[in-house]
Amino acid sequence: MIVAFSVSPLGVGEDVGEYVADAVRVVRESGLPNRTDAMFTSIEGEWDEVMDVVKRAVAAVEARCGRVSLVLKADIRQGVTDGLTSKVATVERHLAEG
User: Fold this and answer.
1) 7: nearest Cα among 31, 29, 26
2) How many CB atoms lie within 10 A of CB 32?
3) pLDDT at 64
4) Which option is the CATH number for 2-97: 3.30.1490.20, 3.90.226.10, 3.30.70.930, 3.40.190.10?
5) What is the full DSSP assignment across 24-90?
6) Which residues form a coiled coil (predicted)?
């Protein structure tokens, strides 16, 4: 499964990068395949391990601010691995073909 999620602290002002970095650090230390962009962090793995990482990422932010917004989108598909890379590669291949 692939989960794309965004964790944002509430009530701390506009500059939230330091808080978001705490969440991303949890994801990167998990060892699961992941990717972070300007809007979301995506992580790939089995249901329990991915959801555990999301929970710990939220907790890392919550520990510093008390209120957190979580947006989560999941692609649950049995038997697929390396979806973070292969899905993008498919789109790139189609773009290259014209």
Assistant:
1) 26
2) 17
3) 94
4) 3.30.70.930
5) HHHHHHT-S-EEE-SS-EEEES-HHHHHHHHHHHHHHHHHHHS-EEEEEEEE--TT--SHHHHHHHH
6) none
